[in-house]
Amino acid sequence: MGWEKFFGHAATVDYLRKNIASGKFPHAVIFAGTEGIGKRTAADICAAALLCDNPVDGSPCGVCESCRLTAAKSHPDFYIVEPEANKSKTRLIKIGQIRAMQTEAALRPINSERRVVIIDGAELMNNAAANCLLKTIEEPPSQTIFVLVTANLSSLPITIRSRCITVHFDRLPPAQIQDALIARGAEFDEARRLSVIAGGSFGRALTLKDSGGAQLREDAFNTLEKISRGEFNNEDIFTFGATVAEWPRDRFADFVIYIQKILRDVYSADVSEPLNPDLSERTAALNISEQKIFALMETGTTFHRRLKSNASLRLMAEAYLMSLRKIFR
Question: How far apart are CA 276 and CA 263, in angstroms?
């Protein structure tokens, strides 16, 4: 529950603690940063501290009744809004959820001096929900604090962003993530690879460690190499499609992103730092023309966008590899 267990972002944590301790925490704040960077955990700790009966230097005490209720997600003054899946499995925050929250936010606090509302995945509000929330943020209940958590700040309407204080959670340096992974039992080589491909997110590094993310990047590189050499036949593509059919959609999205990042390293090898420095020798050996790189990356962008639809994952994976192969021919 406390900041002592929060990883990284020292300057941001110091800012939040000072605002909580001084009683100057904004009535509406946006926590923005890449997925898995720690912003939701920070929001939970802020909520606990704001609701705590005996906060210490901007941190929850962890032992009072309010802290116990907050940790159990049963505090009557703590309200959480999260995306819900619709019939097509698309995750959205709908206007009904915001209206239900507004009813709670307008009530007087029961256990604490204030209420705290966390809206996680705020960028997934539909237009009606966002417009409904705007009215509340423009004229907020005096006793309620709103924390919007988003992995895509630009997707939030400017009208909402302009009425909130934005706190940015920056990407962590790979060396810091590597050391933390090693401290949690990862082997050095695995920690080094994961710290590179995690994109500055320690949470993502942990997820990749548990899900075999380093191996997925290796599979993506091997696939691109084989396609570039003309060694990926129809049987290979159909076999790949059958494998992907068993994956979560996010895993195939990661596969496509890995290929995109490898292509970016090939294109900008002489002008910028590589996204995959541990693969520099193999990347340099890929002989792909600039024209083909642009076509391949455009294809990747198109298929990554299609993942938000309800299309068959197997057919999409097969079509993606066939499109890559066609470009190389």
Answer: 10
Same domain, 199 and 88: no
- The enclosing H or E element of 242 equals helix 234-244
Helix (H) or strand (E) holding 85: strand 84-85
Alpha carbon distance 104, 217 (integer Å) = 45
Tell me how many domains the chain contains.
3
Nearest alpha-carbon partner for 195 in 40, 182, 185? 182
Q: Is a pLDDT exceeding 90 seen at residue 1?
A: no
Report the predicted TM-score, pTM, of the whole model to 2 decimal places: 0.74
Length reported for the chain: 329
Name residue 243's amino acid: T
Please tell me what DSSP assigns to residue 172: P
Pair 243, 123 in one domain? no
> Span 34-53, mean pLDDT?
93
Same domain, 112 and 257: no
> Are 14 and 112 contained in the same domain?
yes
254 and 105 in a common domain: no
